[in-house]
Write the structure tokens for this entry.
Amino acid sequence: MKKEKLEAILTTARTAFARYGLRKTNLDEIARMARVAKGTIYNYFRSKEGVYLQVLSREVEEIVEEITLSVNREVSPEKKLASFVHSKFQHMRRAVNILNLDREGIEEHLHKADTIRNDLFESEVSIVVSILKEGMEKGVFKLNDILLTARAICHSLRGFELNWLVGGSQERIEHYLDELQRILFFGILSERNC
Amino acid sequence: MKKEKLEAILTTARTAFARYGLRKTNLDEIARMARVAKGTIYNYFRSKEGVYLQVLSREVEEIVEEITLSVNREVSPEKKLASFVHSKFQHMRRAVNILNLDREGIEEHLHKADTIRNDLFESEVSIVVSILKEGMEKGVFKLNDILLTARAICHSLRGFELNWLVGGSQERIEHYLDELQRILFFGILSERNC
Amino acid sequence: MKKEKLEAILTTARTAFARYGLRKTNLDEIARMARVAKGTIYNYFRSKEGVYLQVLSREVEEIVEEITLSVNREVSPEKKLASFVHSKFQHMRRAVNILNLDREGIEEHLHKADTIRNDLFESEVSIVVSILKEGMEKGVFKLNDILLTARAICHSLRGFELNWLVGGSQERIEHYLDELQRILFFGILSERNC
Amino acid sequence: MKKEKLEAILTTARTAFARYGLRKTNLDEIARMARVAKGTIYNYFRSKEGVYLQVLSREVEEIVEEITLSVNREVSPEKKLASFVHSKFQHMRRAVNILNLDREGIEEHLHKADTIRNDLFESEVSIVVSILKEGMEKGVFKLNDILLTARAICHSLRGFELNWLVGGSQERIEHYLDELQRILFFGILSERNC
DNA sequence: AATGAATGAGGATTCATTCAT
DNA sequence: CATGAATGAATCCTCATTCAT
């Protein structure tokens, strides 16, 4: 079983993509770093994009796994929600370039990459859904439409990815996440103080 | 006045970038479409990225202008906020590929692109700040820290750009925006019904 | 009389050629530095090479003039020869263009440029010839063939131009010139001590 | 062993550079003549200049080798010196364009070319030094400073390269070399006949 | 399965020269 | 005379992919 090469390629590619992004990473580099001939890569993958897709896939799986773990460590729905938010950013930080939005340079497989990225999104949504559901059952949350709310929350969080992870913003993200959470729980209308 | 060529180049480039993105648009194409010699482009711009930067710049300016206009059409702070959100997405829809987030590994010149994109963000924040301020003064909103809240809101909205504009998600964005707005105003905690 | 533009072009071109060489100097640069439109240059010169040729011509004239002056200040043939050598290098230091053989990028006018450079050489030879002649008449020098000797000397001196002026050698040229002069006068054979 | 391609590239490049010089030789040409894809050249060299540098290097090595051989064929120091001068020009004649002195304004990469050319110069100096030394020991030459003299001689010889090799002068170089040699040995002062 | 040499289709950029105003 | 916008040929370099060994 000579899966070692395959493993080497994927590991190396992950590192390379993480550091330089999809486009700026070229196969020469991966091959050199993986101590493998360039041709070997083509024994396992149809193309550079094939490699990327596989790396992306693995990454998403891992991230979902780790977020789930973090959430399950908490008991109350509020804390679970908070844990979700924080662990999401913790674990995604390293995957910035891999998830990378670099929509160019993927062309035909763009669709597949989107599908994978959407899997991540849907997994997140489904985690949030169960948190919200539990909150509803326990009377902590009050919502009209759990799924809609969950999706809205997840969409919102992507904004922080964009500016913070991708944009390399120097601001302390936690501030904003905390603020967002506060709004999320209480809203901004003064009437809530009735 | 021979600014016609320059205008032709910028207009064409805008269209091309909007359709194919920065990388897949090549100068040959722009030159051909603008009925101009490739060298002519270099009379006006130092490089391909120079063209992109200019197009990006213009686009951002226009968007900010149009959002501001839309907001000012409303009177109440709540409606202004709603108007902000909706017009933001209306006007950004067309600029998807131009603003495009292709990160391609944090390059030299692309740094300027980030700066321009951040300008857009800051402009948005400043619009939201004035809305929130007005809301506070009128006693409609109740907030601890206006700036922080404004930034948190703007960060959140970026998530919708990511999934909806960039990701080409087929979902009806308005649903989510409305839901987000509802949460924004009232929060999700049941305690608000005290 | 609008010779000002012409003068500006030539002066600027001289500087530019001296600093960057023929090939790396482009007309844009000359035009910009001379505060003149690029097209204007083509009113005075048929081509870039035409400009170069003119610059080269002027330099040669100036140098010959100045060397002649320096030599004529001396009285004895030996001192005249020494003066020739030293003033040649003094005055050529600034005229790097002449040496700038950059044979590539001149193409068709290569021949003309060579002719101009040869003019300088021949002028030098003719100066040395008259020095040697005078030396012979006064019985200070003893030679078989004045012209041949003069040419050999001038050829030799070009070696110092090459390494010192062009090559940017850091060595103190005077050392070598003095040594050369010593050999020139006495030779290296020990038999001279008969 | 697939070094054939490399050899083909270098051989072809040598021919091309020798015929057209560095600038007028383009990679397309080399590739075509070497029956090789353009990209292949980049497998072996970082750039066009990389190719040039290698060719230049080889050429210099060969020249030094051949000059040394010629000199060693002679026995007396006087004849060795004469042999040095003549073989130097013999062997350099073919390398004119390769060594070519197109100065193009002291560029980045060309700095290395200068280094290589200087190596040639230093090798020549060191050959002359050993000839002079031997001459001194045998009482044939009388000198104050061997190194200084050697360098002065080599500098002088460069003048002949300049006018004869590079300048394409039609004159019979041997005449001048012989004359130079005569002066070198005996000087021009009549006092030598004491 | 593994290699790595070879490929060649692109794409960005430079610059001398022309010409209408 | 002066301008400077427009031209487009020429050239270097990158890199995903193929293929003979």
